[in-house]
C-alpha cells in the first residue's frame, strides 16, 4: 500500500520523472548525442538499447552530470537540473550504477550498504559510531534482503561472485530513498542463473521507483521494461513496447544482425 501511495503521489503531480529536451553532447568534432528528446513517466521502467557506440552511456552521463549536455535541458520531476552538480542530482532522488563495479572490496557487504545509506543522509559527516540499533544499519540490512544478499551480510566484498557484486551495486543504488535509477548493463558477465536472479530483483523493486536500464542482453531488458528506446549513432532510432521492438524488422536488422529467435 505504501509503495502504491508513493507512486500515486508522484503521478498526481503530472510531471515526468525524467525529461530530456534537445540534449546533445559533443566531444570536439565528435557528436556523441544529437538532439535527444525523451520523457519517462514516474514509476516507468524503460530499456535503452543499441549497439556499441550508439550513445547509451553518454546519455546516462548527460542525465547524471558526469558529462553535462553541450546543448539542451535535463529535468527531474519537473525541476531543471542541467546545471546542477552530481551530488545535487543525487539529493533529488537520482541514482546510477556503472558498467564497472565501484565497491569497497576490503569492507563487508553490510558496511558497503551502510556507507551508501549514510552518504545519502544529512548526518553523513558525523564521527559518532553507530549504535547496535542504528536506523541506517537496519536500512542496510533491509536492502541486502531486497537484493538477495542477506546471507552474505558479513562477507567481504572481495569474496563475492561477480553476480553478487552486481546485486550489491543495486542495493547501493537503492540507499537513501531514490526516485529514479539508471542501470548501466547490470547483466554484463552474469551466468544464466544470475541473470534470472537479476530479473527477479529488478521486477520486485518498489513501484514508485522508475528506472532506465542499458542492456545488451535483450532477454533481460525486455522482461523488466515496459517501454523501449532504440538508439543509433547518438540519436533515438525507434520507441515502442517490448513486443513491438522485438518484432520490428529494422531493429532486427540493425541490432540483431537480421534475425532473433
Span of the ends, CA to CA: 39 Å
Strand content: 15-25%
Strand order of the largest sheet: 6-7-8-3-9-10
Main CATH class of the largest domain: Alpha Beta
What does this structure look like?
By secondary structure, this protein is α/β, with parallel strands linked by helices. The protein contains 10 helices and 10 strands. Strands 6-7-8-3-9-10 form a 6-stranded mixed sheet, with helices on both faces. A 4-stranded antiparallel sheet has the order 2-1-4-5, covered by helices on one side. InterPro entries: AAA+_ATPase, ABC_AA/LPS_Transport, ABC_transporter-like_ATP-bd, BCA_ABC_TP_C, P-loop_NTPase. This is ABC transporter ATP-binding protein. One of its GO terms (biological process) is D-alanine transmembrane transport.
Fold topology:
Blueprint: H1 2-12, E1 18-27, E2 30-40, E3 45-49, H2 56-64, E4 71-76, E5 79-80, H3 86-91, E6 94-96, H4 109-119, H5 135-146, H6 162-173, E7 180-184, H7 192-203, E8 210-214, H8 218-224, E9 227-232, E10 235-240, H9 242-246, H10 249-255
Parallel strand pairs: 3-8, 3-9, 6-7, 7-8
Antiparallel strand pairs: 1-2, 1-4, 4-5, 9-10
Pfam families: ABC_tran (PF00005), BCA_ABC_TP_C (PF12399)
GO molecular function: ATP binding; ATP hydrolysis activity; L-isoleucine transmembrane transporter activity; L-phenylalanine transmembrane transporter activity; L-valine transmembrane transporter activity
Protein name: ABC transporter ATP-binding protein
Amino acid at each position: 500500500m505504501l509503495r502504491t501511495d508513493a507512486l500515486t503521489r508522484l503521478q498526481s503531480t503530472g510531471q515526468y520523472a525524467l525529461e530530456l529536451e534537445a540534449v546533445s553532447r559533443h566531444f570536439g568534432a565528435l557528436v556523441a548525442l544529437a538532439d535527444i528528446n525523451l520523457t519517462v513517466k514516474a514509476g516507468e521502467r524503460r530499456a535503452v538499447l543499441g549497439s556499441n557506440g550508439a550513445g547509451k552511456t553518454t546519455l546516462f552521463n548527460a542525465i547524471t552530470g558526469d558529462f553535462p549536455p553541450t546543448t539542451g535541458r535535463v529535468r527531474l520531476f519537473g525541476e531543471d537540473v542541467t546545471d546542477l552538480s552530481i551530488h545535487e542530482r543525487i539529493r533529488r532522488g537520482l541514482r546510477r550504477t556503472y558498467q564497472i563495479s565501484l565497491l569497497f572490496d576490503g569492507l563487508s557487504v553490510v558496511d558497503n550498504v551502510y556507507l551508501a545509506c549514510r552518504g545519502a543522509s544529512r548526518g553523513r559527516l558525523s564521527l559518532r559510531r553507530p549504535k547496535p540499533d542504528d536506523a541506517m544499519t537496519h536500512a542496510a540490512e533491509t536492502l541486502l534482503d531486497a537484493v538477495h544478499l542477506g546471507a552474505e551480510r558479513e562477507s567481504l566484498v572481495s569474496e563475492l561472485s561477480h553476480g553478487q557484486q552486481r546485486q550489491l551495486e543495486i542495493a547501493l543504488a537503492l540507499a537513501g530513498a531514490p526516485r529514479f535509477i539508471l542501470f548501466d548493463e547490470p547483466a554484463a558477465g552474469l551466468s544464466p542463473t544470475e541473470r534470472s536472479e537479476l530479473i527477479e530483483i529488478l521486477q520486485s523493486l518498489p513501484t514508485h521507483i522508475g528506472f532506465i536500464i542499458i542492456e545488451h542482453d535483450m532477454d533481460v531488458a525486455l522482461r523488466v521494461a515496459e517501454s523501449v528506446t532504440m538508439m543509433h549513432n547518438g540519436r533515438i532510432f525507434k520507441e515502442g513496447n517490448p513486443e513491438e521492438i522485438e518484432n520490428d524488422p529494422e531493429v532486427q536488422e540493425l541490432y540483431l544482425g537480421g534475425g532473433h529467435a
